[in-house]
Amino acid sequence: MRKLVYFVASTLDGFIAAPDGTFDFLPLTPDLAPHLVAEWPQALPTFAHAQLGVDSPPSGRFDTVLMGRGSYEPGLKLGVTSPYAHLEQYVFSRSLPPADYPDVHVVDGDPVALVRELKTRPGRDIWLCGGGQLAGQLLDEIDELVVKLNPVVVGSGIKLVDSGFDPRRLTLTSALPFDAGVVVLSYTRNG
Predict the structure, then answer these.
(1) pLDDT digits 0-9 by tens, 164-186
(2) What Pfam families does its record include (predicted)?
(3) Domains in the chain, start-ordered, CATH in brackets?
(4) Is 102 exposed, middle or buried (0-12, 13-18, 19+ CB in 10 A)?
């Protein structure tokens, strides 16, 4: 069965974006970029593949990406309506008209039901790109959490997981530090 993998950058205090949705304080550091190209190429935007030396189409573990409206919005501001054209793209939004975005599946329904259905289809794993509210809704469906933990504290913003208080214990499966201070931490769900 396919896995849902939440692969995301975060601050030390658990935020994935500023209150306005920007994330430029979580830069792609020169020492992390080669790792992402080698190990996570499908999690890089299609328009950046040539610049980063990513094969087209990239190989790897994902063939599907899920995004909340806030995660999809930065690309829209740049005129990019299909940020991960190499993947099957789902955007959860109640306000985007699907007909205006033919390169992505705009979903206004239950994300849990869709993820459960996607997990039964043949294919590679499913990448949860963000955001925090969507991760909160899908928390019970996330099989693996991979956090690019950045050495910065911001105080407020969009949470890594935005849901009610409900502690979950995860199992650390790897920790990979980089010279610029980023640590890529991989966890699996217990049970």
Answers:
(1) 899 999 999 999 999 999 999 99
(2) RibD_C
(3) 1-7+9-17+42-151 (3.40.430.10)
(4) exposed
Name the amino acid, one letter, at 40: W
For residue 126, what are the contacts with CB-CB under 8 A and spacing of at least 6? 2, 3, 4, 5, 62, 63, 64, 65, 66, 115, 118, 119
The burial of 161, by beta-carbon neighbours within 10 Å (0-12 exposed, 13-18 middle, 19 or more buried), is given as buried
The answer to whether 84 touches 66, Cβ cutoff 8 Å, is: no
